[in-house]
Specification:
With 333 residues, the protein is an alpha/beta fold. The protein has 13 helices and eight strands. The chain folds into two domains: 154 residues, no CATH class; 174 residues, Alpha-Beta Barrel (TIM Barrel). The chain has an eight-stranded parallel beta barrel with strand order 1-2-3-4-5-6-7-8, surrounded by four helices. Strand 2, helix 2 and strand 3 form a beta-alpha-beta unit. The longest helix has 26 residues. The chain is globular, with a radius of gyration of 20 Å.
């Protein structure tokens, strides 16, 4: 049976308010849902979900947040022009190579797993900075700060200047581009490997998932590797599930793109893929029929072994409620 998960649980997002946890779970199941992201802070809800055979997952944001920029200025990436990265669309990308950030986030992940009886945790913002949820994304090259360049030099032996971001970026995007891309990808993969070790030790049997940027190797001149740093070929060694965020309308793509991305991610990673599709009205209202077509694209894709809907609130809004019940309910029947 395919996993059919809704993202963003909160009691007031269900069609009926004021329900008991058991009734909330029954309401989720009536939508065709057999897994939920969220609600794990309420032990009564989790108990009701588990009693009904529903799995409860959490999202964990890895390298993101204005707080990091304020508390640890080195976490703010430096661009190829030598300027501090600017926020975009409310997104504050954090340099994933900073040792203090890496250690603190692994510790936070362990605390999450110790505190709650999760069936799985999905890593989000597990990338080098990029605000990708648009049709024509800005593709920043980062981070050319002295600390990151020093780490790169120590790891590779390539003697790029550490006090000249413009000069270093010119060399690292030129003669040493392959080594720079490989090292940046390794920063992401190695952190995921450490996260897997924590999950296996702290909560054996829980899934480790990853919310991935929905780009194929050929998209945006290879930006999934040279900008984002997500190499699904290596990440597949350390995660149980990958969920490419195939938000077709946000990304200005046709519905058929969902299956194409899903198939490539599965082929590269060799792991189960649960694409996460959008039900939200971004950047413009999403018609119920188009939402239904997106659900079909994921449910009918041979490379997909599950689907996640972003978000629960969108999935039950207006005419989309009937579509959710019909599509997901039929699939579970």
């Amino acid at each position: 049976m395919k996993t059919q998960a809704l993202y963003g649980f909160a009691p007031d997002r269900l069609p009926n308010l004021g329900q008991t946890p058991a009734a909330q779970v029954a309401g989720l199941q009536s939508l065709g849902c057999n897994a939920i992201f969220g609600g794990y802070e309420d032990p009564t809800f989790v108990g009701a979900a588990h009693a009904a055979g529903m799995r409860v997952y959490a999202e964990f944001g890895c390298f993101v947040g204005q707080t990091w920029w304020a508390q640890l200025p080195v976490s703010r990436p430096l661009t190829a022009a030598g300027a501090a990265l600017e926020p975009e669309g409310g997104y504050y990308g954090v340099n994933p190579a900073v040792p203090e950030v890496r250690a603190a986030q692994l510790a936070a992940l362990e605390r999450l797993l110790l505190a709650y009886p999760l069936d799985g945790v999905w890593l989000d913002f597990i990338r080098w900075p990029c605000h990708w949820e648009v049709g024509a994304p800005h593709l920043p090259q980062t981070s050319f700060d002295p600390s990151t360049l020093t780490l790169f030099r120590r790891a590779t032996g390539i003697a790029v200047p550490t006090d000249d971001p413009v000069g270093a970026s010119r060399r690292l995007r030129g003669a040493h581009a392959a080594a720079w891309t490989a090292w940046r990808c390794a920063q992401i993969t190695d952190w995921v490997a450490a996260a897997q070790a924590i999950v296996r030790r702290v909560r054996p049997g829980a899934l480790l998932g990853l919310f991935g940027v929905p780009w194929r190797l050929a998209d945006h001149d290879g930006a999934i590797l040279n900008v984002i740093g997500q190499d699904y070929r290596s990440l597949g060694q350390y995660v149980d599930v990958i969920s490419p965020m195939v938000y077709h309308r946000m990304c200005g793509q046709p519905v058929g793109w969902i299956a194409a991305v899903t198939a490539e991610v599965q082929r590269l990673s060799g792991k189960p893929v649960w694409p996460i599709i959008q039900a939200v009205d971004e950047p413009t209202p999403l018609p119920a029929a188009e939402y239904g077509a997106a659900l079909d694209a994921a449910l009918d894709c041979p490379a997909a072994s599950g689907v996640v809907v972003f978000t629960l609130a969108g999935a039950v809004a207006g005419a989309k409620l009937a579509v959710t019940q019909a599509k997901l309910g039929r699939s579970l029947a």
